[in-house]
Design brief:
By secondary structure, the chain is an alpha+beta fold. 57% of the residues lie in helices and 15% in strands. It is built from 12 helices and 12 strands. The strands form 3 sheets. Strands 2-1-5-4-3 form a 5-stranded mixed sheet. Strands 7-9-10-12-11 form a 5-stranded mixed sheet. A hairpin with a 7-residue loop joins strand 11 and strand 12. The protein starts with 10 loop residues before the first helix and ends with a helix. 19% of the residues are buried. The N terminus and C terminus are likely disordered.
Length: 494
């Protein structure tokens, strides 16, 4: 079985890379360039050959017109037959006919037997006929006889007609085709090289660099030196480079944060383990304080024991679950006012009389929540409020206040928690409930609000910052037992 530490890639990975190499952009660009160049060459070569054939036949007709003018100008029998044959040979024709005034006049004919294989009317020749005729000439056999009809000579008439051998035309056409094909191949090769190098420089190389940098970043995404540096291009590739840089930087920062969180989690687990033992010892000592008859001790000892019990339970739950997620809440109907009093008394030793607590909660108002987790939510909000108010000491209870208001709604309970402090800076509001990002206090952990948000959401509720208020105002909504049961029924139906 292969191990993860093997330096050499698996055969399947090697084969996959080779397959990607055969289908790379460079290979596709070469193939596309070859197809385009060959297609353009064929598209230009065939009409060129057809045009050469027309020119060749037109030259023969022009020579025939000149010979016809000479023959018509001379009296009968003035030109000997052997001179007539030489004139036909110079034209390359076996027969010259001129049609004038509705009659055909045979001006010259050779002694060779005549047979006509192909009729060509240059006056009505179309492009398609020119192309098919050129292809047919290239593939024809030797000895074909062509009858060619063209415009009349300047002296007058309806047309001039010649009969020529197709062999010289085929040989000339083949020679021209070879020459034209050679020139086309050279030009096409040069054009293909230029096109390939241009596209390779503009597109393939930048994409290859992108692929290499992405592969390098994939091997170690936490290494910031592997993040791509944009080349400064202003086209789409430059836009892709900039977007990829943003993506890689965000991912690298996220992974670094995750690594930091993992390290913090390990440290917290170690601290938590030893802290639980210390708290257990403190609990044993507190039990002895409970039997001291002093009135002050009797007043604070139960609260101290309750706080220690809550801390020990939380440590045990954290170690038992061994994860960042909170323990699922154990919800029940509970009175809200006593819980708020407990939070105030917990912070009383710190706040003293400098911070006023204004609590507006109807008597007997109940919430459906886990008492310990809701205590942590309110305590985190209250501690943040106290820290914000302490930043402008000396404290004044008429100015520095924590205001808690609760009202029962149709679907649950809404708790408004506010302070009269300086409020939350706008730059921190976007990351208010993200761990390690929202602490404005020097030395703060930035975990209070994320913990509160996670606990409230575990209850099916919602916590949000209320905009437009003086200081910091948070609105907490906790659904009632009836709403929670309806949600369970709906999930059961689904």
């Amino acid at each position: 079985m292969a191990t993860t530490s093997a330096p050499n890639p698996a055969p399947e990975q090697t084969a996959a890379k080779r397959k990607r190499g055969r289908s790379s952009l460079s290979f596709k660009l070469i193939l596309m360039t070859a197809i385009v160049v060959i297609s353009v060459q064929l598209g230009l070569l065939i009409p060129t050959i057809a045009s050469y054939r027309i020119d060749w036949l037109s030259d023969r007709l022009a020579a025939a017109r000149t010979a016809a003018m000479v023959l018509e100008a001379a009296p009968d029998a003035v030109i000997p037959p052997h001179l007539t044959r030489e004139l036909l040979a110079s034209v390359g024709a076996q027969l010259i006919v001129v049609k004038t005034e509705g009659a055909r006049r045979l001006l010259a004919i050779s002694d060779l037997p005549l047979r006509v294989d192909v009729h060509i009317d240059m006056r009505k020749l179309t492009l398609w006929e020119s192309i098919t005729g050129a292809v047919g000439t290239l593939l024809a056999h030797d000895g074909r006889i062509l009858r060619v009809v063209g415009d009349p000579p300047p002296a007058g008439g309806e047309f001039v007609e010649i009969v020529v051998s197709g062999t010289p035309l085929r040989q000339a056409l083949q020679h021209f085709a070879v020459l034209a094909l050679s020139v086309s191949l050279v030009v096409g090769l040069l054009a293909g090289i230029i096109v390939y190098m241009s596209f390779n420089w503009m597109f393939v190389r930048p994409m290859s660099v992108l692929a290499e940098r992405m592969e390098s970043f994939r091997r170690n995404p936490e290494d910031a030196s592997r993040i791509i540096m944009p080349s400064g291009r202003t086209d789409e590739i430059g836009l892709v480079e900039e977007s990829l840089e943003d993506l890689q930087r965000g991912l690298s920062q996220t992974l670094q944060q995750k690594s930091h969180l993992a390290s913090v989690g390990l440290a917290v687990a170690k601290i938590n383990h030893d802290l639980r033992n210390l708290l257990t010892s403190a609990q044993l000592l507190s039990d002895r304080l409970a039997i001291v008859p002093d009135a002050t001790v009797q007043r604070f000892a139960p609260k101290l024991l309750a706080a220690l019990d809550r801390a020990i339970t939380y440590c045990e739950q954290t170690l038992a679950y061994g994860r960042v997620m909170e323990v699922p809440p154990r919800q029940r109907d509970m009175d809200l006012a006593p819980l708020l009093d407990e939070v105030r008394e917990t912070l009383a030793a710190r706040t003293g009389a400098g911070i006023a607590w204004v609590v507006d909660v109807p008597a007997g108002l109940k919430v459906f929540a886990d008492p310990d987790q809701l205590f942590r939510v309110i305590l985190n909000l209250a501690r943040n409020a106290v820290e914000a108010l302490e930043g402008r000491a000396p404290l004044d209870p008429d100015r520095d206040q924590i205001r808690i208001r609760a009202r029962g709604r149709e679907a649950g309970v809404e708790i408004t928690f506010a302070d009269t402090g300086p409020g939350i800076p706008p730059a921190q509001r976007a990351h208010l409930f993200e761990a390690f990002t929202a602490s404005a206090r020097r030395g703060g952990s930035g975990l209070g609000l994320p913990i509160a948000d996670e606990l409230v959401r575990a209850h099916g509720g919602e916590i949000r910052l209320q905009e437009g208020e003086a200081g910091a105002t948070f609105c907490i909504f906790l659904p009632s037992r009836q709403m929670d049961a309806e949600n369970e029924d709906e999930q059961g139906v689904i």
